[in-house]
User: What shape does this take?
Amino acid sequence: MTQGASGSPASASRLEAGGEGDPGPGAPAAATAPVAESDPRTRGFERGAAIRRAIFLALTLLALALTARAIGGERGLLDARRSLAELDRAQAEVQKWRDRNSWLEARIKALKDDPATIESLARERLDYVKPGEITFLFPSDPAAPAPGEPDPAAPGEFSPVLP
Assistant: This one.
């Protein structure tokens, strides 16, 4: 390869193509501009690069949309967290009712089989006393239910209203 007057391979190729060598500082800018705009290979390369950028942008937007849907959409991460919280609450409530049921079963068994339980209940509700015992009566709380009346229902339980 031959080198031009300036010693660079680019100026040598311009000399071989019929150019004048290095035009110098006073030459117009159009004389030094490459003619690559009309080259079909360059346009094809630029078109391919533009298509690749467009595909990359489309895939990035698609990934962002799918990520947003996975986090906030139906059956997404936020919905799963809400479901787990609801499941924990429901399990706690079920455990509360299981504990209450086991206490009631133990109470039923004691009322059927344990004479001491039956005696204490009769003494409490019916005001029974054994012979020789001394009974002390204290003024009753006006908010307390009278003996023989049902106790107020616990929160969340059904309490039938008697006419």
